[in-house]
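During the second half of the funding period, the structural biology subgroup turned its attention to how the target accommodates small molecules. The most pressing case was flavin mononucleotide, which had performed well in the primary screen but for which no bound structure existed. We therefore specified the complex as follows and requested a full 3D prediction, including the ligand pose.
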Amino acid sequence: MTTLVVYETMYGRTRDVAQAVADGCGGGGDVRLVEVGELAAGLPDDVALLVVGGPTHAFSMTRPGTRRDAGKYGRTISQTGVREWLAALTVPAGLPVAAFCTKLDSPLSGSAARAIAQRLRKLGGRLVVPAKDFYVKGTQPELLAGELDRARAWGATLIAASASR
Ligand SMILES: Cc1cc2nc3c(=O)[nH]c(=O)nc-3n(C[C@H](O)[C@H](O)[C@H](O)COP(=O)(O)O)c2cc1C
């Protein structure tokens, strides 16, 4: 079974979380961690669990404009975000899927994870656990203490959840 963990990042924190999620999934077989801009359109044939994560921008997935805003602070601007990748994606019916994001620890700040999960379900995926938020602070964002442990633990739940119906 191959687990594909796809992530987008501006400042690197979602990459850190994605790596921890992939580590957590590790007991379940082959795990591939790929930045969204490095993926060709479409899914490799052998994917049995698809996990997608990105930063929350303007309450949801990033857009070209929000990525440009992030770029003003000196970050690399990716041409393709998770939003654009998902827009072009076909998902085999019932494929186990999961979604996560990074965001500020504030109840009114939205969640890219929710939006990603919604999109994956609309594409026909089977959400195996609820969308998960991981928290950062600051404009040069740092993860809150304990978030990488939480990400590893969340990753470990995904394999079992994707096996049960
Ligand atoms: C343009 C922009 C808009 C943002 N909007 C939100 C937001 O609406 N809600 C939120 O919780 N965080 C927001 N943030 C903070 C990001 O979620 C944070 O920078 C991100 O989690 C860091 O992940 P990264 O290191 O992978 O880029 C925003 C950040 C930027 C640069």
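Two results from this model are relevant to the next phase. Strands lie at 2-7, 30-35, 47-55, 96-104, 126-127, 132-137, 142-143. The two ends are 16 Å apart (CA to CA).
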